[in-house]
Write a structure and sequence with these properties.
47% of the residues lie in helices and 15% in strands. The chain has 352 residues and is of the alpha/beta class. A five-stranded parallel beta sheet has the order 4-7-10-1-11. Strands 2-3 form a two-stranded antiparallel ribbon. Strands 5-6 form a two-stranded antiparallel sheet. α10 crosses α12.
Length: 352
């Protein structure tokens, strides 16, 4: 590995505990729904994401043989997750996949090639400046994240690629807001604030200078800590399937979400899955109250919607007005005779 591509160690980043925690939890538990990093330029968002390269767990993936290879069966390999970065100028065809133009011109044959989303399968997909992406590209990423697959269709030719990945996005809010639909997809949200302590800011400068002068030597100083953390991530992913949430803590999590009047059900999913990841990182098989306390700010911030609340109030007022008009215009209904079996539609109506 050359000096130019050596990542800055994650543990060498000064401060930013929430940033490091969220990225590690997202790596441990892909069911979280990914991580969004918001903050001004120069606070270490991209540096932190690339620091995960030293911590990537081993995953099992199926590798397709070359089109001209024999036999054509899939082979299963175990290898570290990779970091796939989405360029800001990526076209929709680059992201989803499309026709191999060289083969089409030389052989007059339509061959569909995988896009970035397919290459991200089983890996970490990093989208920098996600709020500046073309809306069609963002929609394709969201669809793949939700479905776990990408469909490429060019005329009568179609191909389906698996696309399950850990999604990490970053943005500078000075350049524009993120659409609510996209924002809701991210399980954890981190505000990466500039450091306030002058001593920490000076330490940032000194470490950056030391890394530029001797990347390999600087990384060597953190090698033991980084290796230990990589083992912890690997162990936590193995423990995660066995981690449970006690019923009383599930109720506590729902109470917090409802107290905040958060409309999206992804809030409780992110909160509970984040708590499970934190428990696994602590080598425990049961979530405790401290897990919820630590994860809640990451999972629940930026989820409340005054517009949705107002729309809900107007909808309730309109329903009440309709029922009042019905009560005034229609005679009181006589009770219908009970039948042994009710239709599903009738049962749903009686639940309202």
């Amino acid at each position: 590995m050359s000096d130019e591509i050596l990542p800055f160690p994650l543990l060498a980043i000064v401060g930013q505990a929430e940033l490091k925690t969220a990225l590690l939890l997202g790596l441990i538990n892909p069911a979280l729904g990914g991580v969004l990093l918001s903050g001004p330029y120069g606070v270490g968002k991209t540096t932190a994401v690339r620091g995960l390269l030293d911590l990537m767990p081993t995953v099992e993936r199926e590798r397709e043989p070359r089109p001209d290879a024999e036999p054509t069966t899939l082979t299963t390999v175990r290898e570290p997750m990779r970091l796939v970065e989405l360029p800001l100028n990526a076209r929709l065809e680059d992201v989803v996949g499309g026709i191999n133009e060289r083969v089409a011109l030389e052989q007059q044959t339509v061959r569909l090639e995988p896009g970035i989303l397919a290459h991200a399968h089983g890996n970490l997909l990093y989208v920098d400046e996600i709020n500046l992406l073309d809306p069609a590209v963002v929609d394709a990423i969201l669809d793949a994240a939700a479905q776990g697959r990408t469909l490429v269709r060019r005329g009568p030719v179609t191909r389906l690629y698996p696309s399950r990945f850990v999604l990490v996005g970053s943005m500078n809010p000075e350049e524009g807001a993120l659409r609510p639909q996209i924002l809701d997809r991210f399980g954890l949200r981190v505000w990466v604030a500039p450091l306030d302590d002058p001593r920490q800011r000076l330490e940032v400068y000194r470490r950056a200078q030391a890394f530029r002068a001797d990347p390999a030597g600087f990384r060597a100083a953190y090698a033991a800590q980084t290796a230990a953390l990589a083992e912890e991530v690997e162990s936590a992913r193995a423990i995660l399937p066995h981690v449970t949430v006690p019923p009383q803590l599930e109720e506590l999590a729902l109470a917090v979400v409802q107290a905040l009047r958060i409309p999206s059900h992804r809030a409780e999913i992110a909160l509970l899955e984040g708590a499970r990841a934190r428990a696994a990182a602590d080598f425990r098989t049961q979530v405790n109250e401290e897990d919820l306390r630590r994860v809640a700010p990451l999972a629940l911030r930026q989820r409340r919607s005054p517009q949705i609340e107002e729309h809900g109030r107007r909808s309730d007022d309109e329903r009440a007005a309709v029922e009042a008009a019905l009560a005034q215009a229609l005679p009181s209904p006589h009770p219908a005779p009970r039948r042994k079996q009710r239709s599903t539609i009738h049962q749903l109506g009686e639940e309202q």
